[in-house]
Amino acid sequence: MYGKAFAPEYQGALTTLSVNSSLTEVLAAGTEQLRAAERAGRPAEAARSGLAVAEAHRRLGRVEEADRAWKASYRAAREAGDVAAMAWALWSGGTLARQRGAFALARRLLQLAADLGERGGDIVVRGYSLAGLAETGRIQGDYEAVGRLHERLLAEARRRGEARHTVWALEGIAQMHRNTGAYDTAYALFEEAAGIAARADDRRGHAWALRGLADVISVRDGDTERALAMLSEAEATCRAMKLSSALAYNHKMRGNVLYRAGRYAEARDLYEQALAEFRAMREPRGEALARLGLAKSLAKLGRDREETATELADLARTLDRIGLRHAREMVARAQEEFGTPAGAAETEAVR
């Protein structure tokens, strides 16, 4: 039903790159082709090569470089009058904005990308852009609004037999079920995603599916060792492909698994590692989640109650500002668990 996974963001002279090419390989090849296109005065090719450069930088956590690259790709596409290439550049920019926690900008750029993709007759960039909009809403916790869009995009991806996009949609829907406590449904969807990704040789998608499975196995079954083994398998892929963001989320999830098992000192070390990784790539959502795990671990290890209250109150304000509803609810539960309800830190400060 599904063919081998491919990477539609690797375009022009870079279509020979695999979905599993390491990001350093993509960056080197993309930069070489971009320079050649610029020297030859070929803006259309510069736009396509520049897109790969932008995506490599983004996935490596190099925010400024990614920002410059997608904008340069868009300018080159506009110069060439290539509407589809303009859409792809906007998709990259919108994805970067979401990664940086700028959700309003992400939605604006991704909607523009979807509109241009439709106008330019590129159904793939249109689908990827709509998927980006769905993921933005899901990350913010707006499940009701984006659930139907996720399902529609999944149906479209299945109809086209596009493995990578099907895997992405399955994982997004699975995550919403996991977050609302429907663990069996989440497990089944993550398992299906892992199977499709493995058969299609989509190593990135497979690594994310393993992370989801490990999470469910840990929280539903309490099977710590099996969950850790899955995360180790996924980590090997992340390292081989230089997937900086995915690796940081893997480490954060390992911290979650260890925390649930009562191994608080080990969890603390993993959360500290993930926090440093997220801060290095300036990914606010990951940073906030790692901070929450670290605060809870330190509280379990005997941290002063007032320090915990102050940390959780600051984290709550940060999440309110970013607009991450589900993560904010997690902080509220932590405040309840550790006897530091919202406002406690401010009350102590007044006293």
From TrEMBL:
Species this protein is from: Streptomyces bullii
Superkingdom of the organism of origin: Bacteria
Protein name: Tetratricopeptide repeat protein
Annotated Pfam families: TPR_12
InterPro entries xrefs: TPR-like_helical_dom_sf (IPR011990)
First and last residue of the signal peptide: none
